[in-house]
Amino acid sequence: MASIYLNRLRSPDNYIGCYKTLLQKTPSTENYVRLAEAYLNIQDADSAVATYETARRVNPSVKFGVKLARIFVKTHRYEAAIRCYKEEGSGGEGAIELATLYVGLGHLDVARETLEGLERPVLASPVLAKISDWKSCESLCSQLLNSSSVGAPGVNGAPPAGISSTGSAATTARLMLADATFRRGDFQSASDHFASIVSSSQEQGQGMNYTALARYIEIQRRLATLKEGKVTDMLAGKVGRGVGGVRPPGYCYCQGLFEWYSGNPLVALGWFNRAKHDSEWGQQSLHNMVEICLANPEVAGSSIKPGNGGALEMADSFIKEMNPCSLEEDWSCKLLSNFIRCASLDRIEFEMALNEFTRLAQNEGTRVGASLGLAKCYVHHNQSSRARNILKLLAKTPWTFEEADYLESCWLLLAELLIQDSKLDRAATLIQHTLGYNKSSAKSYELLANIAESRDELDTAVKYYNQALRLGVSSEPGLSLKLASLLLRMRRYGDAMDVCMSARRKDASTWHAHRTVYERAMNHLRT
C-alpha cells in the first residue's frame, strides 16, 4: 500500500502514514528503521534523523551510527557525520566510509590513519587508491588475490563485504589491482588487466563485466587506440544481450561511452538515456549527458528531450533528474549546474556562477573543477591575467582519475593563455604533460599546431592540425579552416581544396566559412 501511495498516487503524506501506523501497532526497532528510510525516500532527512534518534532512546543497545552518518553526509553536515562514524567503532564499512569522507574533505593523512585499524585491510584498497598510496593498495590487492587463488575465503578467514565466493573475491581483487594500476598512470598494464577480466568473465560464463569494460574503454580513449576495433568486438553480438535480447544498463552505458569518445554525441545521448534510471549506472550516465550538452550545442531538440529548448535547457533538465547519494556526486551536480550558468552568458546567471565557483574553489573536493570554472569566467570578462594566476596553481597538481577531465582542461586553458603571451616553451611543456595522460586530446594537437605556426614550422603545424582533425570528437569548422588557410599560405592549393571539400561533406553548413579559401586556391591553380 505504501508503495502505491508513493509511486502511483504521488501522496507522500499517506505514504508516511502507512509506516507511522505500522510503528504505532508494533513499536519495534525494525519499524523505526522502516519509517526513517521512508522519510529518506521523500527527501525528508531531518525527520529521518529524528526517527533514528527516537529509536536509539527507546533501545540504547542498538547502534545507528552508520545510517545516521550517511544522512548527515547527504545533507552536508560533515562534522555530525564524522561523530556518528566514530561512535560506531573502528571496523567494517563505517571506517571505510569515514576514510572516504576524509578524502573528500581533503584530510588525506587522517584518512590513512583511519584505515590502519581495519580488521580486514583489503577493504581499504579503493580508498588507498584515492589517496595515491599505490604501494599499499597493490600489496593488499595481491594479498586478496593470492588468498583467493589458493581457495581461502579471504583475510582472517572471512570474505570481504560484498564478496560471496572465492571466484568473486578473485574478480574483485583483479578489478582493484587493475584500477590501482590505472590510477597510477600505467595505462598499458591497466589495459591488459581490464581486457583479461572482460575476457575471463565471459569464458567462465559469468556474463560481461561492465565495470571492467567501462574502464577499458576509458583507457583506450586515453591511449588513442579506441578505433582499433577491440572495443567494437567486445560490444558486438550476444556479448551485450540481456534476458530476451534487451540490453542491460551496463551495456547501454558502455556503448554510450564508446559512441561519445568516438565522436557521435547524439548517438551517445540515446544510449546513456537508456541507462539513466539504473541505480548503478544512472548517475554517471546523467553526468555524461550534461557534459555532452555543454560541449555540443547541436544536440538541442533531439528525440531524447523533444521541444524547442536549447542544449543548455536539456542539460539543466538532466541535472534535475540526478539524485546524488554521496558527497562526490553532490559536488559533481553543483559544478555542472554552475558550468551551465556560466555557458548561458546571462548576466545574472553568470554572476551567480562566478560567486559559486569562488566558494567551491575553497573546497578540496571541488577545487580543480571550480578553478576551471573561475578561469573561464575571468577569460570571458577579458581578465586573462586573473585566470592565468588561478590556473598556475594547478599546473603541478598530481593527475587523478576523478578530476582528470577538469585538470586536463585547466592545463590546456593555461597553455592557451601562455601562447597568447608568447611563452611558447612553457605552453608546449604543459601540452605534452596533458598528452601523457590523454593521447586523444584533439585540443592539445591544435595548440601544438598554433605553437609550430608561431615558430614558422609550417610542415609541423600541418601535421598537428591533421592529427587534431583525426581525433576531434566533432566536425569543428574552425579547425579545418585553420588547416586550409595554412595550406593556402604554403601554396599547397590542391590540399587546401581537399580540406575544404572534406569539411563540406561532413557538414554542409560550414561551407560558407570555407568557400573563400576554396575559391582562392582554385584561382591560384588556374593561373
UniProtKB/TrEMBL annotation:
TPR repeats lie at residues 29-62, 442-475. Keywords: TPR repeat. It holds the Pfam family ARM_TT21_C. Residues 315-502 form the Tetratricopeptide repeat protein 21A/21B C-terminal ARM domain. One of its GO terms (cellular component) is cilium. Residues 172-294 form the Tetratricopeptide repeat protein 21A/21B fifth ARM repeats domain. PROSITE patterns: TPR. The keyword Glycosyltransferase does not apply. Transmembrane segments: none annotated. GO terms for biological process: intraciliary retrograde transport; protein localization to cilium. Belongs to the TTC21 family. This is Tetratricopeptide repeat protein 21B. It comes from Cacopsylla melanoneura. The lineage of its organism: Eukaryota, Metazoa, Ecdysozoa, Arthropoda, Hexapoda.
